[in-house]
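step: validate -> pass
step: tokenize input -> pass
step: predict -> running
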Amino acid sequence: MKEKQFDVVCFGFGCVDVLIEGFPSAENFENNSIGKGMVRVKSSTVSPGGDALNEATVLSKLGNKVKLVCAAGNDDLRAVIEKRGRDVGFDTSDLGTTDSGKTLLSIVLMQGNGQHTFLSNGEFETSVYEPNFETLKSGRIVSLASMFVPPLNVPEAVVHAAKTAKDAGAIVCADCGFPRHGTLNPDFIPAFQYIDYFFPNEDEILGMTGKENVEEAADVLLEYGVKNVIAKIGKRGCILCNKDGKVHVPAYTVKAVDSTGAGDNFAAGFIHSLLRGKTPLECCKFATGVSAVSVQHVGASVGVQSLEQVEKAIEGFEKGACESI
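step: predict -> pass
step: emit ->
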């Protein structure tokens, strides 16, 4: 098998986020008024976002050679995504064009109490495009970063992507959004046999399986053919589940400012460690550290700046013990 051109191909969803920090709650709205129709906020930032784009950004900052496969519109927001690729060094030559011709814009209102409200321009369902599946053959690892989200909301596309990557000798990782209507379309199940590492969060894994706890839900996914299920359980850390058993890896205790994209940072950290031959448990520990760095900053892919920064940060975090469950 010939050498792969990229360490990772990140395939999935991309958008542009407008982050409004310090947006007042309803009861404090008048107190923050600075004139008719105007309200004071702490800061506002325009930043590329979306699962695949966040993963590509963080993986590139960690020193990996990355290709992004997603889509944008024929509009000014497309340049924001292309600039991110140039700035951090990932390949955007397969940046497609959405069928709607528009880039999804997401406005995130971040209140001081930690609550976020997401506003969209309504183009989410029309953010579909026809990807170049052949480019998935160019990665040592292929990350299906946004299962159940366009363009990976079509079962046939997910199965085809996962099988194409696996047949080309890649390690296949996958993250997901919440299944549409809260349940898993059974037509997605054939894709799981090709997935080596799957990163659902707690709500997602319970929703797609109908189970009441993560451990039982993971067993269902393992039966579908997933080799390793890594369930992200927020500030409690993650649970690694495979044929060898289940292990809880606690999160590091840090002061979180913004949890947007924490799961994408986790996936990027895990994939980075996989590329270096680490065990699944070692990958979970490093991924937890990457996520801890990310939540201390506003923005989904702002916190992580370099591998050296993350390694130094992990050294300073409070270390937790792993528990077999």
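step: describe -> The CA atoms of residues 218 and 229 lie 6 Å apart.
step: cleanup -> pass
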